[in-house]
């Protein structure tokens, strides 16, 4: 996958491949849904939250993320998506992925409002054959998980972007040299971060 352009406020990125590391074998993108509208006034609870749609801005930024992923030739084999309307609409607004291959798309109830460990544990269920994967979910779980892995490995120039938090439509890119269902935390390396 080609490198993302620099995150706002960050330094230019130095892809790992230029630093002398071997080409990555497996890629993963963690993405937070794009901006969503609040629940209608007076409607509270999980059902109202699950039903929140993207705003026009959210649809636009998700589409930009899709263009970025296509430009990077990211071809997921598996996309795991929270069942919330805002994550599903984010995936729709991303549009197609690069190339002809269609990813396996799974709506995973456990991703809704998931704790970081829940998201991490889902990797153990990724089939061996899924080399490139994408997870579309929510904060605060995603931000915590990105920070957890970034604490082990953070490329130069991404520290500033990390400190921006993980706003809606953010994407964090990771590589691993082992199958995702066997990778331990030391195998999972942050390579890029894009905050819209
Ligand atoms: O990712 C999140 O923070 C949750 O899904 C809540 O979404 P919100 O920030 O749009 O309220």
Automatic annotation (TrEMBL):
GO terms for molecular function: phosphoglycerate mutase activity. Keywords: Isomerase. Pfam families: His_Phos_1. It is an enzyme of class 5 (isomerase). Its EC number is 5.4.2.11. The lineage of its organism: Bacteria, Pseudomonadati, Pseudomonadota, Alphaproteobacteria, Acetobacterales. This is 2,3-bisphosphoglycerate-dependent phosphoglycerate mutase.
């Amino acid at each position: 996958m080609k490198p993302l352009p620099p995150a706002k406020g960050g330094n230019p990125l130095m892809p790992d491949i230029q630093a002398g590391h071997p080409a990555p074998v497996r890629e993963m993108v963690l993405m937070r849904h794009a901006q969503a509208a609040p629940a209608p006034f007076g409607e509270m609870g999980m059902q109202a939250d699950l039903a929140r749609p993207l705003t026009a801005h959210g649809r636009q930024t998700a589409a930009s993320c899709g263009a970025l992923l296509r430009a990077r030739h990211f071809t997921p084999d598996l996309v795991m998506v929270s069942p919330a309307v805002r994550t599903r609409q984010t995936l729709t607004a991303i549009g197609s992925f690069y190339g002809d291959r269609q990813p396996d798309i799974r709506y995973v109830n456990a991703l809704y409002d998931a704790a970081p460990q829940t998201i991490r544990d889902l990797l153990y269920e990724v089939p061996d054959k899924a080399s490139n994967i994408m997870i579309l979910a929510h904060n605060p779980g995603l931000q915590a998980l990105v920070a957890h892995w970034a604490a082990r490995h953070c490329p130069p120039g991404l520290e500033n972007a990390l400190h921006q938090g993980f706003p809606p439509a953010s994407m964090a890119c990771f590589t691993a040299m082992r199958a995702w269902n066997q990778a331990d935390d030391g195998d999972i390396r942050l390579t890029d971060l894009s905050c819209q």
